[in-house]
């Protein structure tokens, strides 16, 4: 793996990064001081995603199954925008508002991966906006897209 570096005007060395946005994100939809995803060092780091409709800039609340599916669809869209697939996910962190929803969440989550599943941490957390689930991922970008 090769890391790309650039020099700024003062000749300081910086690792290059590429911002990845959800393809349906409304330009006016500002969610905070972070990017949907960032490619650096051959990996895509995806910020915590939730059950959001990026076209209307709204959170869509529902059952744990519904929110997990929408969240995973959002993650998939960001991954595909970066030139990768769900099978390139190597690690995810899952925050559930109610850990008792784990089995129902896991049933939906598992359908998004074939073959080797990513490493994962799952915890119970207090989540904003009344959402049930938030997921972030680390994705290995295929060499052709690095």
**Rg, nearest Å:** 16 Å
How many helix segments?
Answer: 2
Question: What is the domain total for the residues?
Answer: 1
Unreliably modeled segments = none
For CATH, the homologous superfamily is named as RutC-like
Following the backbone from N to C, one meets helices and strands in this order, namely EEEEEEEHEHEE
- What is the beta-strand fraction? 25-35%
Oligomeric assembly: single chain
CATH topology: 60s Ribosomal Protein L30, Chain: A
Number of strands: 10
Distance between the termini: 9 Å
- How would a textbook summarize the main sheet? 6 strands, mixed
Which architecture name does CATH use? Answer: 2-Layer Sandwich
Residue share in helix: 10-25%
Strand adjacency order, main sheet: 3-4-5-10-8-9
Would you tell me the structural class of the helices and strands? Answer: alpha+beta
Overall outline: globular
Report the average pLDDT across residues: 89
How would you summarize what this structure contains?
With 146 residues, the chain is an alpha+beta fold. It has a single domain (15-145), classed as 60s Ribosomal Protein L30, Chain: A, CATH 3.30.1330.
Topology, pairings included?
Blueprint: E1 5-7, E2 13-15, E3 18-20, E4 37-40, E5 43-49, E6 52-53, E7 58-59, H1 64-81, E8 89-96, H2 102-110, E9 119-124, E10 133-140
Parallel strand pairs: 8-9
Antiparallel strand pairs: 1-2, 3-4, 4-5, 5-10, 6-7, 8-10
Helix pairs in contact: 1-2
């Amino acid at each position: 793996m090769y890391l790309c570096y650039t020099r700024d005007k003062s000749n300081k060395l910086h690792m290059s990064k590429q911002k990845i946005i959800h393809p349906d994100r409304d330009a006016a939809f500002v969610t905070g001081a972070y990017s949907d995803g960032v490619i650096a060092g051959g990996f895509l780091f995806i910020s915590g995603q939730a059950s959001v409709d990026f076209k209307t800039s709204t959170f869509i609340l529902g059952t744990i199954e519904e929110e997990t599916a929408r969240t995973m669809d959002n993650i998939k869209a960001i991954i595909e925008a970066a030139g990768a697939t769900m099978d390139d996910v190597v690690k995810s962190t899952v925050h559930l508002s109610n850990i008792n929803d784990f089995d129902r969440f896991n049933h939906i989550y598992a359908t998004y991966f074939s073959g080797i599943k990513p490493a994962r941490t799952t915890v119970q957390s207090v989540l904003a906006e009344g959402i049930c689930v938030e997921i972030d991922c680390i994705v290995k970008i295929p060499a052709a897209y690095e």
